[in-house]
Amino acid sequence: MGNLLLSVLVVFLILGGPLTLYFVIRILSNFWGALNVKFVKTAEQPLSLMVTWDNESFDIKITRIKLEMTELVPGGRSVAQSFTFEDSSSKRKSFALALKLPEKDMQALTDSGLEGQARALQMSAINVEVETIDGETRRFKITKKKLLASIAKEVQLPEGMELVTDKEPDSWSVQTRVFPWRKAVETEEDAAPKKAAAHGGAPAVREAVNFDVTKVWIEPGCIVCDACEAEAPLVFWVQADTCIVRENAL
């Protein structure tokens, strides 16, 4: 039987060439302990993220977990949270992270979709990013249907696996593409022009209110979309394949 499987593998490699070899390596790697994630429900926690890998074969040190979910339906919801482990407490072995999320975020992840939107469940997926101490990011996409199936019944964690229950979501992370330090508001002086606009006069004037920003950074996985430089050109500088914060940015 073993010789037959080996023969089939050799035939596939010869016929498929490098592409087949790539997929074979990916499959074998995942089967024998590469980094993987899975949502689970335990007796202690209603929703946890289990992060597993063969720590003897893969020297991985995890410093950050990021979750993003979007319902691609009218009026849909979104969730964006991250959990960061300081370098000294980076995870070097498989672990389960208890997701201590705000109630609205927990509901968005675990319900059957928005009421009145029959396609909400089918159009929902959770993107999980696992960042290592060397800056490498592994990305996983899990459909909401698969998440709900995973937490349909309680499971017991493998013996010796750490369950992290004391980690709160990051409060400092940029969790939205809406820049919080600039907001268009209507001032008292807008009232008269607005009334005039209603009668064919000048349009109402809106001004930008700026809020103090004490710290900025480039999120891992930046896609170089130019949005940051367009919003704050004195702070961000988008280059060909990366983005940097300008020295002595104002």
Describe the fold and architecture.
Residues 173-187 and 205-211 have low confidence and may be disordered. 14% of the residues are buried. The protein has helices at 2-31, 103-110, 144-150, 191-198, 227-231; strands at 36-40, 48-52, 62-71, 78-84, 95-98, 124-132, 137-143, 162-164, 182-185, 207-210, 236-238, 243-245. The chain has a 4-stranded mixed sheet, with no helix packed on it. Strands 4-3-6-7 form a 4-stranded antiparallel sheet. It is an alpha+beta fold and 250 residues long.
Layout of secondary structure:
Elements: H1 2-31, E1 36-40, E2 48-52, E3 62-71, E4 78-84, E5 95-98, H2 103-110, E6 124-132, E7 137-143, H3 144-150, E8 162-164, E9 182-185, H4 191-198, E10 207-210, H5 227-231, E11 236-238, E12 243-245
Parallel strand pairs: 5-8
Antiparallel strand pairs: 1-2, 2-5, 3-4, 3-6, 6-7, 9-10, 11-12
Task: Give, in spatial order, the strands making up the sheet with the most strands.
Answer: 1-2-5-8
Rg to the nearest angstrom?
24 Å
| Total beta-strand segments | 12
Integer average pLDDT: 78
The main β sheet shows up as: 4 strands, mixed
